[in-house]
Known about the structure:
It is a single chain. By secondary structure, the protein is an alpha+beta fold. It has one domain (3-22, 51-129, 175-382): 2-Layer Sandwich (Arylsulfatase, C-terminal domain). 45% of the residues lie in helices and 14% in strands. The protein contains 13 helices and 7 strands. The strands form 2 sheets. Strands 1-5-4-3-2 form a 5-stranded antiparallel sheet. A two-stranded antiparallel sheet has the order 6-7. α4 (135-148) packs antiparallel against α5.
Amino acid sequence: MPEDKQSSVPISAGAASYTAPTPVNTPLNAAPISRGFSHPNVPDISEDESEQQQGHDLMNKLQNLNIRPSGIVEVLPAPVARRVEGLKGVHADYCKIEHELKREMLELEKKYLLKFTPIFERRKAILLGDSEPTPEEITAGEAVSEKDDPEAAAAAKQEREDAEKNLSDEDKAIKGIPHFWLTVLRNHDGLSDLITEKDEAALEYLTDIRLVYLSQDTPGFKLIFDFAPNPYFENETLEKSYHYQDELGDTGDYIYDRAVGSEIKWKEEKDLTKAVEIKKQRNKTTNRTRLIRRSHSVPSFFNFFSPPAQPTAEQIENGEVDEDLLEELDEKLELDYQIGEDLKERIIPRAIDYFTGKAIEFDIAAIEDDDDYEDMEDDDFDE
Length: 383
């Protein structure tokens, strides 16, 4: 499948590369360095008065600094500055081991994906109606429902058993679980905003979403969307690959490099990412009229497979790209990578929870938890 829709992280002034927010490389929070700590105000019992005074002088210098990356080191006495450089060397040894850990954890994710795959294949078989769930699988599912809400589970089971006694021919003819993946995507808060009414008609043909990791030489992952034959495009699969940079970042995290999406082979007049305007023009000389068709881009879920175009570093350095445009591009790329991660880490493994709505409760709880905190201004750290 050709992949020629690409994007990579912008190298805009002051903007850092995006860290891939996977469970193997992302801390729970980035706490301010001052959280939980205060400046020492009791000297060590071994300090004499001279040492105390030197320490106080140094502390006063540090406290009066407008902190910047090199600000502290610039005011340190030479012996202390030398020790700081030594600590950097010690930390470099830590980083080497940390990088090794992160790489091994990625390999562990790949290993366990192989164990998950048969489960995902079993899920697909039931969704498509190729197989019915076994009595054991149904019993296990009922146990999960009962654990979540015993009363609701008992009522739902009784209602289902009563309904099965009087099934209509139409109900008996239903195969699998229709529109499963469309419902899953609509029940994700972020993705639901991207899906238009026209997109829904095409996404009804979505039969599976799969995850594969890229090769050892190319760290990253690929999302594969399988479609049944449909009136919208020729592709049987649409793919989106997320590539990490070869080297880990300074914090030991994987850094996004670029995203690559499939080219969608739209059928005639079925492109959901374009709208066509038809205008009538009249020739001033002959008075004849003609119809002009002009297309323009419109919001669509399927724009996901066409990542934002990335300007070159040379274009940015030469000022050929407007700063506002760069900022807008940064936001689009960040959203694109977040969607990819949510599909990988949440939607694919927990699809049934998004279908039933159970996952929505967890998402809302997470949002409410985030709302308990507010961003701090730079001035807040100077107080």
